[in-house]
Amino acid sequence: MALIATNTAVFGMWKVSQRHAGLAKFMWTHFACSFHGVATERRVHTLVTSAFSHQTPLHFGINMFMLWHFGSAVLPPSNHDASSFRRRQPIQGGTSSWLPSSMAKQHRYVVHEPRTLDSREFAKIYATSAIASSVLSAVVSGLRGMGHVYSIGASGAVFGVLTAYCIMHPERELLLYGVLPLTADEMLKLSVAVNGVGSVFQHAQHRALAALVPNVDFVGHLGGQAAAYAILPK
Q: How far apart are CA 50 and CA 30, in angstroms?
C-alpha cells in the first residue's frame, strides 16, 4: 500500500533527523502541525504532512498495522484474489454444470459480496480524516492557549479508516488487544467513548485529571472519526 510506504519514508526521515540538526529543524517546520504554525506562520501544508509523521517505532508500528489491517478489509481484493473469488461462486440463475446433463437442474444463488470502497472513496476518507484530525487538534490547542504544541501521527486518518470499517461491517467480530471479542459496532462505540473521555480529561482545567491520560491526541482521533462518518457513502 502506497500510504504505508509514504509513512515509512517519513518515519525514516525523522530517525535520520535525530543525528542532523538541519534536517530536524526542517521536519519540525514542515512535518509537524500546531495552531501557531498554521494560523500565524501559514504552514497550512502541515495539516497533511503531519499525518505521515511518527517519531517512535511503537507509534509507527501500531498505526501502520491498523492501516494495513482495516484498510485491506475495506478495499476490494487484488485482481487475482477477486477473479479467484468469482470463479468459486455459482453463477446466479445458471445451470449446475458439474452434474450429469440428465440430472442438471436450474438453481438460483444469491451471492453476497462484502461491501468495499473503491480507491477514490478510500483516498477521500483517508485524506479528509487526516486533515480534519489536524484541524480540530490545532483549533482546540489554540483555544486552550497551547498554540505552540505540536501534533504528529497518522492516528486521525487511521481512526477514520477504522470507523469506515466498523460502519460497513458492524457485525464482524474483532478481538480487542487480541483477547476481548467485540463486534465492529461495539468497537466503534468503545473507540468514540474512549477518545471522548480522553479529550475531556486531557483538556481539563485540573492538572491532576489531565495527568490521568497519556500524551495522546484524543481530540485528533475524534476529528478523524467524525470526518469518516460524515463522508462515508451510505
A: 8
80, part of any domain: no
Is 189 within the bounds of a domain? Answer: yes
Q: How far apart are CA 65 and CA 31, in angstroms?
A: 21
Q: Which three cell numbers stand for residue 3?
A: 500510504
Question: Quick check: is 91 in a domain?
Answer: no
10-residue averages of pLDDT along the chain (234 residues):
95 97 97 97 98 96 96 78 41 40 46 77 97 97 91 97 96 85 95 92 69 82 97 84
In contact, 68 and 4? CB cutoff 8 Å? yes
Q: Where residue 129 sits, what CATH number does that domain have?
A: 1.20.1540
Give the number of domains in the chain.
1
User: 110-139, pLDDT tens digit by residue?
Assistant: 445 678 899 999 999 999 999 999 999 999
Strand, coil or helix: 142: helix
Range of the domain at 121: 2-74+112-231
Residues 6+ apart with CB under 8 A from 217: 133, 137, 151, 153, 155, 156
Q: What are 2's three cell numbers?
A: 502506497
The per-residue b/e assignment along 189-202, b for 16 or more CB within 10 angstroms, e otherwise, is eebbeebeebbebb
C-alpha cell at 230: 460524515
Q: What is the pLDDT of residue 77?
A: 79
Q: Is residue 217 part of a domain?
A: yes
CA distance 29 to 34: 10
**Residues forming a β-bridge with 95:** 106
Q: Where are the alpha helices (DSSP H) in 51-183?
A: 57-74, 79-87, 119-143, 155-168
